[in-house]
Amino acid sequence: MVTVKMLKPYYIKMSNDYVRVILAYQYFSIVINNKVYQFVPIEEKEIRINRKTQEVANIEAKFAFQKGKDIIYITMKKLFLPSSSA
User: Does residue 86 surpass a pLDDT of 70?
Assistant: First the structure.
């Protein structure tokens, strides 16, 4: 099961069409099987929200998380699911 432990935007950037939530190392972490993994900006680095529909536009975006030498990749879609597994 994947649980978001912490999610704080590094900064937020807005345009007419999107709100972009920019992520950084120490501000995004998840828990999988009682192990904490930290976000690493290897793949996607932002969450993009459509201002008109108020939905996440990059739902298929793949985020990387690291614990020691172990790196896992999880899509935004899996992070949204109530009881997802990696």
Answer: no
